Amino acid sequence: IDFHKAITRAHFEELGADLFRSTLELVEQALRDVKMDKSNIHEIVLVDGSTHIPKVHKLLQDFFHGEELHRFVNHDEAVAYGAAVQAAMLKGDQSDEIKEVLLLDVTSLSLLAML
């Protein structure tokens, strides 16, 4: 079966509202897991997937009180950056840039939600 249906952004956001809100629940759980308050977050980097959905971006920005969200357009670049930081940490790099970074493997799998 080949099925195509055009929907408006508003209808898409309505259909996905519960899933979009669950994004915030995952963020809250991640913060609880590391015993950190969101006020201690000074930079947010979004990578791939649902972070390209404007509604998700807006919910996250509101959750973090308007904090600027940075998006990696290139997933491979984001992965390479994270790997480079991890390598520097494992090597024992004590530079201020590395000491200020906290790498967390919150989800090591790509997750897909089907509407």
Question: How would you describe the overall organization of this protein?
Answer:
This protein is mainly alpha-helical. The chain has a single domain, classed as Nucleotidyltransferase, domain 5. 48% of the residues lie in helices and 7% in strands. It has a two-stranded parallel ribbon. Helix 2 (17-33) packs parallel to helix 3 (54-63). The chain starts with 8 loop residues before the first helix and ends in a 16-residue tail after the last helix. The relative contact order is 0.13.
What kind of sheet is the major sheet?
Answer: 2 strands, parallel
Low-confidence stretches: 111-115
Distance between the termini: 17 Å
Name of the CATH architecture = 2-Layer Sandwich
Tell me the number of helical segments per DSSP (H or I, 4 or more residues long): 5
What portion of the residues fall into strands of 2 or more residues? 5-15%
Helix content: 40-55%
- Tally of extended strands? 2
Number of domains: 1
Q: Rg, please?
A: 17 Å
Q: Under CATH, the topology is which? A: Nucleotidyltransferase, domain 5
Tell the overall outline.
Answer: globular
Strand-pairing-aware structural class: mainly alpha
The largest beta-sheet arranges its strands as 1-2
Query: SSE string, helix = H, strand = E?
Result: HHEHEHH
